[in-house]
Amino acid sequence: MQLVFATNNLNKLKEVQALIPNHIKLLSLKDIGCLEDIPETQNTIEGNAKQKAVYIKTNYNYDCFADDTGLEVDALNGAPGVYSARYAGEQRNAEDNTNKLLFELKNHPNRSAQFKTVIALHLNGQLYSFTGICKGEITTEKYGEKGFGYDPVFKPNNQNDTFAQMDLTLKNSIGHRGKAVKQLVDFLSEKK
Asked: pLDDT (tens digit, 9 = 90+) per residue, 1-20?
């Protein structure tokens, strides 16, 4: 089986490749010659994931999957949510986004948050979706050098470290993306 993972984010690609079994050949957007930015104009995480998967199937005719991930912070009424990548502006700078989040939560007692990943799979003309959620809290400062995005300020429940302090195996086993990818892999295994 061959599937395109519709992402330009090399960090995401690396995380997902570590979870996909060998019998599934994973292609990147670069592998299929898709160099343009895929539109993400929906107002939900689910909508963006589906929009990207449909775009690849429609324009490149590959079976594929796409994900969208958002950080939902209770004290900010679910923000940044679908706007997580561009929370601090269209430049999509992770450092700026994280700094803005820490500023918005400064002195706020409720630091509960969750990461949510939705994977949309376009396979054999059908669209499926899988959701992974990881609950935790936003730290008061950044910790760790691993990971990407908000990882330095997100500490999952029942853990002492942020995602940016964890090795990839642990992060994938408890994290939102790992949970969604596991559902995807289980589904594809049944389709073999």
From this structure: 899 999 887 878 888 888 88
Q: Give the pLDDT band of residue 192 (cuts 50, 70, 90).
A: low
Which residues pair with residue 4 across a beta bridge?
Answer: 27, 64
**Quick check: is 68 catalytic?**
yes
**C-alpha–C-alpha distance, residues 19 and 4, integer Å:** 15
For residue 50, the number of C-alpha atoms closer than 13 Å in the C-beta half-sphere is: 13
CB 121 within 8 A of CB 184: yes
Supply the DSSP string of 101-166, one letter for each residue. Answer: HHHHTTT-S--EEEEEEEEEEEETTEEEEEEEEEEEEE-SS---SSS-TTGGGEEETT-SS-GGGS
The DSSP 8-state label assigned to residue 181 in this structure reads H
C-alpha closest to that of 71 among 90, 45, 107, 43: 45
Domains for the chain: give ranges and CATH numbers. Answer: 2-191 (3.90.950.10)
From the candidates 63, 67, 68, 151, give the one annotated as an active-site residue.
68
CB distance 50 to 97 below 8 Å: no
pTM given for the model: 0.91
